[in-house]
Specification:
The structure is a single chain. The chain is built from 14 helices and 22 strands. It is of the alpha/beta class and 481 residues long. Strands 1-8-7-6-5-3-4 form a 7-stranded parallel β-sheet, sandwiched between helices. It has a 5-stranded mixed barrel with strand order 18-19-20-22-21. The radius of gyration is 23 Å and the shape is globular. The structure holds 5'-deoxyadenosine (5AD) and iron/sulfur cluster. 5'-deoxyadenosine binds next to strand 16.
């Protein structure tokens, strides 16, 4: 039988832009109904997550909510009674992947009409995507947005009880929901949100519209989550925000990211990381804290996006290449053995050869330890998508390949320089390629593979680097103190 469509709320990108006077904080307590418990008890769920760490963290929350219904996680999509696709829309190819995946799920739904398919996350914060899902992908049962996670179980109940294809996507500047349920993906490393949304409105970026305006979590809630994770034996915490450096600006007069970072470092967590840094909000106090605490890893992800001042201006990045380089130099000077990574967009509308060369020049000067490179992808509703572009896609791919090659040379050099040095490595598991080999990351976030006993998994050990590849290192165990 064909299911009716029921629309509670449709997304509206404009609403997400509007700043709220006051952010509200909610404590969300899960009280699943008898109906949900009876219906889902013992059934299996499968979650596929696309995109960034914020999505990964949201998926852990969704999994935690489902486990309150006594559902079990499966890694085999064919075995699932409930499939969630937690989507990303930062670039078009991320969306294409999701559509491909949903298309493939049709066969499963035909085999098992009771299968429930849920699509959530950033992609469905866009009206044209929801319409496409409703019109063309009839296998999808429930669609909700990034602001509706706390409401997930109610939406699931409504979908099942009313036997409808339900759409409930809230577009808003957003509030803060504290949801303590969580089924974390990892036993040793955990992400902790410090803020949600983004206020930077880079002209190419859809995130401020899909995730709403920037809002910080209360410091007590963050520290409480960190302490609970430490009690459970977690060794590494990564503080998460679209722009961690602006943490607290919306909430406190005299407590910023440097204070939070210091407070978290003082909990005694073995390893502390943070993502993502915006150059504009990076202040000296933060640099001092990073250099002062040994448990803060010497690795900073500092997206530059472009090395050209004119492109940076059109991107609304709020800094010049000189200001960026000054910050990099200060960081390198004050934080010995610092590793830097970055994000770079190639082929922003009307980027000239000279402007692209400025990016190559900057990359050579900074000498990044790792980098994520992207070809510009127009996103409906963002200011950059309205710019008429005179650069062909062929030219963009040529530039992209050139940039990747330049970066590889630099990254290889940086990896080579690690040979002979000893690093702390948090052992995460056996290597994907060879089950006799263990793998983990060093403080600079470089993947290290080495021979060792699997009993070392979950420990921090000393490893001497004996060989380097561009994206990983090979080492030998020195001690397992
Ligand atoms: N096109 C290409 N890359 C983008 N990013 C964000 N928006 C776009 C876009 N429209 C990249 C930026 C950002 C990273 C997460 O994704 O480099 O830092
Ligand atoms: Fe997007 Fe810019 Fe915010 Fe990063 S800082 S999430 S690129 S708007």
């Amino acid at each position: 039988m064909k299911k009716e469509i029921k629309i509670e709320k449709l997304p509206d990108l404009k609403k997400a832009r509007e700043k709220k006077e006051h952010i509200e904080y909610f404590e969300y307590l899960v009280k699943p109904s008898e109906f949900l418990l009876n219906f889902f008890d013992g059934k299996k769920y499968y979650i596929r997550t696309y995109g960034c760490q914020a999505n990964m963290r949201d998926s852990e929350t969704l999994a935690g909510l489902l486990e309150c219904l006594k559902m079990n996680k499966t890694e085999v999509v064919d075995d699932a009674d409930l499939i969630i696709l937690n989507t990303c829309c930062v670039r078009e190819n991320a969306e294409d992947k999701v559509f491909g995946e949903i298309g493939a799920l049709k066969a499963l739904k035909n085999k098992n009409p009771n299968l429930l398919i849920v699509v959530c996350g950033c992609m469905v914060e866009q009206t044209h995507i929801v319409n496409k899902l409703l019109d063309t992908y009839k296998q999808v049962d429930l669609i909700f947005g990034t602001h509706d996670i706390y409401n997930f179980l109610n939406l699931l109940e409504q979908t099942v009880k009313e036997n409808v294809r339900l759409v409930d996507v809230t577009s808003s500047a957003g509030d803060v929901y504290e949801i303590s349920q969580s089924a974390r993906d990892d036993k040793f490393k955990a992400f902790v949100n410090v803020s949600y949304g983004c206020d930077k409105f880079c002209s190419y970026c859809i995130v401020p519209y899909t995730r709403g305006r920037e809002r910080s979590r209360r410091k007590e809630d963050i520290l409480c989550e960190v302490n609970r994770l430490l009690e459970k034996g977690y060794l590494e915490i990564t503080l998460l925000g679209q722009n961690v450096n602006s943490y607290g600006k919306d909430l406190y007069e005299d407590y910023d990211f440097s204070n939070l970072l210091e407070d978290v470092a003082k909990t005694g967590v073995k390893r502390l990381r943070f993502l993502t840094s915006h150059p504009w909000d990076f202040n000296d106090k933060m640099i001092d804290v990073i250099s002062k605490y040994d448990n803060i890893m010497k690795y900073i992800h500092l997206p530059v996006q472009s090395g050209s001042d004119s492109i940076l201006r059109s991107m609304n990045r709020r800094y010049t290449s000189k200001q960026y380089l000054d910050l990099v130099n200060k960081l390198k000077e004050k934080i010995p053995n610092l590793a830097l990574s970055t994000d770079i967009i190639v082929g922003f509308p009307n980027e000239s050869d000279e402007e692209f060369e400025d990016t190559i020049k900057l990359v050579k000067e900074v000498k990044y330890d790792s980098a994520f490179t992207f070809i510009y992808s127009p996103r409906v509703g963002t200011p950059a998508a309205k710019i008429k572009d005179n650069v062909t896609s062929k030219e963009k791919s040529i530039r992209f390949t050139r940039l990747v090659k330049e970066l590889e040379k630099i990254i290889e050099e940086k990896s080579n320089a690690m040979v002979g040095k000893v690093f702390d490595v948090l052992v995460e598991g056996v290597s994907k390629k060879n089950s006799d080999v263990l793998s983990g990351y060093n403080q600079n976030n470089k993947l290290v593979n080495f021979k060792g006993d699997p009993s070392l998994i979950g420990k921090i050990v000393n490893v001497k680097i004996i060989e380097s590849h561009t994206y990983s290192l090979i080492g030998e165990l020195v001690s397992d103190d």
